[in-house]
Amino acid sequence: MTLHDVARHAGVSSMTVSRVINDYAFISEAARAKVLKSIEELGYRPNAVARATRTGVAQVGVLYSNPNSSNLSAFLMGAFRKAGEIGCQLLIEPTAAHPTPARAVAKLIEAGVGAVVLPPPLCDNAKILKLLAAAGVAPVSFATARPSPDVTSVAIDDFEGAAMMTRHLIALGHVDIALVRGDPSHSTSTRREEGFRATMAQAGLAVPDAYVVEGAFTYRSGLTAASQLLGLRRRPSAIFASNDDMAAAVSAVAHGMGIAVPTELSIAGFDDTPVASTIWPQLTTIHQPIADMAATAVELAAGLARRDADDDQPRRHVLAELTLVVRQSTAPPAS
C-alpha cells in the first residue's frame, strides 16, 4: 500500500495525502477527512524509512518487559541520552500494558517505527522477529546471550561473566557454591548457568542438584530460592545469584536467619545495578555497562531505520566489556 494508492482511493492528489500525513496547514477539513478515512480503510502505514531519509529523524521503538528491574533506569537513560545526541525519536512501549508481547510490537509497527530495540526475552523470540521482518522493521537484539547472525545485536559474554565470578569464589577457597538461576525464558540465564557449571567442573568441584535452584530475575524469586538453599542441612558457603535483585534477596534472607555475610556466607550477583551498592554489605558483582549498551543499541537502530528494509549490509554485533567488582559480600569461607 502506497501514498499514491491512498490518493486514488480518496480522490485527491498525492501531494494532498502527503500534507495530511505530515500535518501541514492549509488543507481543507473536507479533504483531510477524506484522506484520513482512506488511510484507515486501506490500513496504510507511512514508510518510516522514507520519512527518516527525508527528514533526518529516525523513529526507533524501545520495548521493556520488567518494570521492576534494577536495570530499567540505566537502560532508559542510556537510550534517551543517545537519542538526544543523534536526533532520533524514541517510542517507549511496556509489554506489560498489552495482552501479549506481540501486541506491544504491533503497536510500534503501527506507529511507523523503522527499527525496534528488543530486550530479553523478546530478543530471543522467533515469533517477534518474524513479525518485525514481515513489516520491514529492523530489530536490534539487546543483551541476548545467543545473537542471531541475521539480527544486529548489543550484548555481553554471559558465559565468561559467570565464569569470572565463579573463579573469584573458588579463589577465595569456596568449594560448596550454589547458583540461583535466572528466568528460563532468557538466553542469558542459560549461558550464565553454563559458565558457572563449566568453571566448577574445570576446578574439579561437584555441583549437587540441590545447589542449583530456580529464579526469575526478580527479588521475590530470590527470596524463595534463598529459603531453599539456606534451609539445606548442608548449606553452601557461597551463593552466586544470576542477577543483583536475586542476590539482594539472598542477603535479606540470610540476615533474617542470623547468618553473617560474608563471614558465614558469601553472596555474589551479576549486572552491578544500583541495588548492588545500596544494600549492606555491598554486593560483589559483574559490572555490565547497561546505559552504554542501550545507547549503542539506539544508535544502531537509528542507522537501520534510515536504510531500506531490503538492505543487505552485514548486521553488526557489539560485545560490551565486563568487569568483576569485588565488594564486601564475599570473603574466604569460615574454617
Automatic annotation (TrEMBL):
Q: Which domain of life is it from?
A: Bacteria
Signal sequence coordinates: none
For this UniProt record, give its keywords in alphabetical order, as a comma-separated list: DNA-binding, Transcription, Transcription regulation
Q: Which organism is it from?
A: Caulobacter rhizosphaerae
Keyword Transcription regulation part of the UniProt annotation: yes
Q: Which SMART domains match?
A: HTH_LACI
- Using the record's annotation, list all stretches that form the HTH lacI-type domain: 1-55
Please give the name of this protein.
Answer: LacI family transcriptional regulator
Q: Which SUPFAM superfamilies match?
A: lambda repressor-like DNA-binding domains, Periplasmic binding protein-like I
KW Transcription (keyword) present: yes
